[in-house]
Design the sequence.
């Protein structure tokens, strides 16, 4: 292997490795050093700026699921301010926390992105803004790729809830006994007593005045 070929192979390998291992993309610069820019749009005092490190590419999240991602603050040598990061997601997607402050002694914050089951599959954009103590804000975007749920079901929040299923009631032993006919009901010659009828007098069954005793 010649020296020239070896150097070329090493250069290509390092460039490929850098592309593979790159895990974040930068926002626009913010902070006091970004207040003035050159004709090319670059900050005049880059050491007094900061940028936000956002995940590269799209983060895949299934409908109804969530994912934890990290956002970093990359500070210039002369920037030591706290940075407050705000997240502005579209409808159906929530970010927790929706706003987080990265102290000057810290350089990263973790956030949970939750996708509602009703969000349609496809690419969604979350706007991100980082504000230091002074100067303009750093802005960027966080891309979400919503994938279809495995069960292929979509919940309609406006649909009425299904009524509860009827539960069959087992008859009790008492109910079964009450349903059986009595012996009198099955006897065609049985006499039904009238509860309102007066009891007969054994001496005068016709009622009225008592009968006189016969004289001798």
Sequence:
């Amino acid at each position: 292997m010649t020296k020239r070929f070896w150097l070329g192979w090493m250069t290509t390998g390092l460039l490929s490795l850098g592309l593979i291992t790159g895990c974040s993309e930068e926002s626009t610069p913010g902070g006091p050093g970004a207040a003035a820019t050159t004709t090319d749009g670059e900050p005049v005092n880059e050491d007094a700026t900061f940028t936000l490190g956002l995940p590269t590419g799209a983060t895949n999240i299934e409908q109804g699921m969530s994912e934890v991602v990290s956002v970093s603050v990359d500070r210039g040598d002369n920037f030591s301010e706290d940075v407050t990061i705000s997240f502005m997601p579209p409808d159906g997607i929530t970010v927790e926390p929706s706003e987080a402050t990265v102290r000057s002694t810290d350089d990263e914050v973790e956030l949970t992105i939750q996708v509602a089951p009703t969000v349609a599959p496809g690419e969604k954009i979350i706007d991100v803004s980082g504000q230091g103590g002074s100067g303009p804000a750093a802005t960027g975007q966080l891309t979400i790729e919503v994938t279809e749920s495995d069960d292929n079901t979509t919940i309609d929040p406006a649909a009425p809830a299904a009524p509860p299923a009827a539960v069959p009631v087992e008859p009790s032993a008492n109910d079964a006994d009450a349903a059986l006919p009595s012996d009198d009901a099955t006897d065609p010659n049985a006499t039904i007593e009238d509860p309102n009828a007066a009891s007969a007098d054994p001496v005068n069954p016709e009622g009225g005045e008592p009968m006189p005793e016969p004289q001798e």
